[in-house]
What does this fold into?
Amino acid sequence: MTRRENLLYFPRVSATYSRVVLKISGESVRRNSEDSTIDHDALGALCKQIIAIRDLGVELSVVIGGGNIIRGQTYHGRQSGFIRTDADKMGMLATAINALALRSTLESLGAEAVVQSAVAIEGIADRFSLPAAEEALKFKKIVIFCCGTGNAFFSTDTAAALRACELRADILLKATAVDGVYDRDPKNYPHAKKFDRLSYGEVLEKNLNAMDLAAFVLCMENNIPIRIFSGLGDGGIAAAVRDPSIGTFIGNF
It folds into this structure.
């Protein structure tokens, strides 16, 4: 059994995963929808969890969304007057703002971090380079990816899946506001069933809203397992690396 197959069938704790891509939303850097765009306490708590993962010996990359500032997918149409491609480009820039805030806070806490952008933003972020990202990971730097895939109509979920495939990550971790994948919305259905483990086929067969479909198919075709879990609360993100029972594990089994 290969190391990847071992990870899929027997996900262990602590340093099982040597290379991880973590997808976090823009909302993770603020306390709630009434807060300012970036809450320094929330950002600091998030960065401490990211450092805790790095300190386990994990090579860590982070893809961050921009929903705390603007979400391109929902910020277009007649009411706003923006066309979809422009709205998505605005969303890409929002992720760059969050990425810079993340890097600055990580470095203030003593962790080395680099920002790579899918689009050219000279003087603000390095352009995405797979060799440069792998070199940074080798030296235990945290690599932050921003601006999605660089294309309109693709979510940051898809960007995270793409980077996980390119980096040959052991797993893609997606931190959400829900503690896993359910058969229906647990906010509206108190008796909704939570799944501990799912195969890629089951997610498609049951039409579960696990993540963006393009992202999911990328992971499925490249055999990248996914763990979806709640990133809320202190220690929630770091715990997902140590404890294989947290959230919902999606793989090829």
Q: What stands out?
A: Residues 1-13 have pLDDT under 50 and may be disordered.
